[in-house]
Amino acid sequence: MAQPSSKKQRTHPQYELLYHPGIPGRGEFIRLALEAAGVPYTDTANEQKDGYSTVQKICMNTGTESADGNPPVFSPPALRVPGAGKDGKSALIISQTPNILFYLGEKIGIAPEDEASKYHVQQLALTALDLNNEVHDSHHPIAVMLYYEDQKEESLKKAKDIRESRIPKFLSYFSRTLQHNEKTGGGQGKYLVGDSLTYADTTVWQVLDGCMFAFPKEMQARKSEFPDLFGAFYEGVKEHKGLKEYLSSERRLAYSMGVFRHYPELDRQ
Amino acid sequence: MAQPSSKKQRTHPQYELLYHPGIPGRGEFIRLALEAAGVPYTDTANEQKDGYSTVQKICMNTGTESADGNPPVFSPPALRVPGAGKDGKSALIISQTPNILFYLGEKIGIAPEDEASKYHVQQLALTALDLNNEVHDSHHPIAVMLYYEDQKEESLKKAKDIRESRIPKFLSYFSRTLQHNEKTGGGQGKYLVGDSLTYADTTVWQVLDGCMFAFPKEMQARKSEFPDLFGAFYEGVKEHKGLKEYLSSERRLAYSMGVFRHYPELDRQ
User: Fold this and answer.
1) Contacts of B165 in chain A (CB under 8 A)
2) Does B7 have pLDDT greater than 90?
């Protein structure tokens, strides 16, 4: 992991993750980044009494302000950073998963400092988050507010396309990125960019892991096509110092009815 | 518009936009940012002989490199920046629309320099691009590689949800952001963040404009709900110095069979 470049950066504010309780969801990408960096944070909805009402008040209101003088938030997740507001005293609230990751990348040492690599890490995270959105649509192709059961026919078609066309296209891209890094002397097949763990690794890893939960047969069948991705990369991230303890802790929430859902009928038959 | 902070920043490399020819698509968000800043660029596929084969070679190959030693690209658009590569000599290639916008925001004076505003601009752009993706899915809810005609039944359902639930949710967020800026002393109803044009404005504007093309009846009916957005904001961006000439030029491509398509049956009836 890149070392923070100054003493100042080593003292972190008490970051607060504002997200729905009980599911990994998009909040998980933020959790993994913070856990990997060993930086303490508060998972407000899961840890605080009435925490979800705080999340709702800040991220799901329909007013012209989120909180602390910050502009509105479209939807969770958001990150609350005490003392980082515009006036230098109140809290900064930022939202959109890739935006939060970019911000944290600069603060907690999970992104490289050179410009080309910094934007490459964000490019990978954005692409993994695109796949995350597509997987969500495999069980909600018509409307996010309808039940799966009310769009099951369409889900069967959508999931087929995602499994047969989209997942291999994304896996190929991630796999070729690993190979490029290794060919140019970095990563040893364990990291996507450079020689240390970045939020590109944790984000791609989470989407891989989620797909294994949602589509176990499909992913099992793809293993031999992308041995590097399922092997040194996937297994390596799990063993990373900051993540190993987290992944076996109670803080790591089980997949259930969030983005990654296991409906056997949507998997490879 | 924020002024570039040093003389160095005023000398720009010859930016090259790598995108599909003949459609505005996701490339348009990059074009608008560059045009608004008055920074020259090459629209490779539309301006160069065999330009699209360059785009295909760099952004749509299945190898372990895009070009100039850069890692693979998942799909267009990408930005080629001569002289900005890792070795300080070759070109840097970066992809993912919001990533390119963030990068340009730091280089060409279309993003604020203070941290809170910089991430707020990116938050807005990411959210507008999410709506852009949802609108794409209104005519391709099942599979990007199938014809619209082969997923028309599903499109009728999907478009209904996008018009009735999603578009108003996004418009409300953009409108409340305008109001927040004005309430805290900025923007005069013309800018989403601060007192000058940013890529948040151009990106939200393009999605609004595209929705007006795709769903003219729906958007007409929404005007009275969001008078600020359709009024001072939408009209103001069109009149911006750098954009007015562009929007009436031949460089501004007509909507056709890209993200924004006008199928009357998908509009409000």
Assistant:
1) 143-145
2) no
